[in-house]
Amino acid sequence: MNQSGFWWILIAGAVYGVIHSLTASLKLKQLAAQRFGDLGRRYYRLVYVIVSLITTPLYMALIVLLPDGHLYTIPQPWIFLTGFIQLLALAGMLLSLKGTGLLSFIGADALFTPGSPKSSNTLMTGGFYRYTRHPIYFFSLVFLWLIPLMTWNLLAFTIGVTLYTLIGSRFEERKLAGEFGQAYIDYRKVTPWIIPIKLK
Question: Alpha carbon 151 to chain centroid distance?
Fold first, then answer.
């Protein structure tokens, strides 16, 4: 069985992660603000999301374009349980997005709100953010790892997304600490990281 697709997707995932981590960095955002002024500050998030909308489907397309092989299928009756958990995870993602404000999350609030985007001034600590600092990441990983039909390519993609999420969230937290200061540091002390369990 040809498993070359697995390794190519892992490599592509590493490249994808580096690109997205760099474009999401505070330093690049500051450079955009220096170069383009208020336009750079207001529309950076929106441009970042547009770049993500272009690159993510290209990354995902490798799952079907490269050689693949079947790993497992979740059997009945367990598939009904895992499917139900996936629905709960999807609902959790949507509720978390609603809490942050969908327009703010994708940067589109810059198109409708005068001045700087509101999201840059708001630290979310309510809703699911009371239990984990990254509820959207948590629910996304639950959904991915419970995919009922797993192939080598899907496994590589899932591993890549998981590693990017775990590593990228650490960089994101540095940015949030710089943006919100002591308020975020205090929040981080009392709220679990991605897994909503406080480890001793």
Answer: 22
Q: How far apart are the first and last CA of the chain?
A: 44
DSSP tag of 131:
T
Do the Cβ atoms of 117 and 110 come closer than 8 Å? yes
Per-residue pLDDT reduced to its tens digit, 67-99: 999 999 999 999 999 999 999 999 999 999 887
Contact 93, 140 (CB under 8 A): yes
DSSP class of 75: P
Cα(143)–Cα(83) distance, rounded to whole angstroms? 9
| Model confidence pLDDT, tens digit, residues 24-53 | 777 888 888 888 887 777 788 888 888 888
Cβ of 176: how many Cβ atoms within 10 Å?
19
Q: Angle of helix 182-190 relative to helix 152-180, nearest 10 degrees?
A: 130
> Token match 């950076």: residue?
44
**Sequence-ordered alpha helix ranges (H) in the chain:** 4-23, 26-36, 38-65, 78-100, 102-106, 109-112, 135-145, 152-180, 182-190
What pTM does this model have? 0.84
